Amino acid sequence: KVIIGERCQINDSVHIAAADSIVIGDDVLIASRVFITDLNHGSYSGEEHSHPDSICRERMLHTKPVLIESNVWLGEGVVVLPGVTIGKASIIGANSVVSRDIPANSIAVGNPARVIKRFDFQCGQWVAVDAK
């Protein structure tokens, strides 16, 4: 199922592939060429692995829900992978690949996407996050 909140803007060539659950909050802005999915064909980690000789389209679907909270902006060409939560009021930079959760009020970029700034409500500004 796909649930899309109120007042969302979804631009051209956006692909949403849901086998289980993708929830998009209110006031979300999704730029062009964004791909959001909650599924993988096969398993490639953990205890159960898909054999490389198996036919790709016949491999079991593995799903993990995706949650994009309210007031999020997904830039041009962003990819959101299964099992991810993007916290409210966050910004994902163009061509980033989101493979893990992004906290609320954050700016994340890259492949894999990593948080580079967080909004500091005390000073009212976006503040750089130290690289680790």
UniProtKB/TrEMBL annotation:
<protein>
    <submittedName>
        <fullName>Putative O-acetyl transferase</fullName>
    </submittedName>
</protein>
<keyword id="KW-0677">Repeat</keyword>
<dbReference type="InterPro" id="IPR051159">
    <property type="entry name" value="Hexapeptide_acetyltransf"/>
</dbReference>
<keyword id="KW-0012">Acyltransferase</keyword>
<dbReference type="InterPro" id="IPR001451">
    <property type="entry name" value="Hexapep"/>
</dbReference>
<keyword id="KW-0808">Transferase</keyword>
<dbReference type="Pfam" id="PF00132">
    <property type="entry name" value="Hexapep"/>
</dbReference>
<dbReference type="GO" id="GO:0016746">
    <property type="term" value="F:acyltransferase activity"/>
</dbReference>
<dbReference type="InterPro" id="IPR011004">
    <property type="entry name" value="Trimer_LpxA-like_sf"/>
</dbReference>
<dbReference type="InterPro" id="IPR018357">
    <property type="entry name" value="Hexapep_transf_CS"/>
</dbReference>
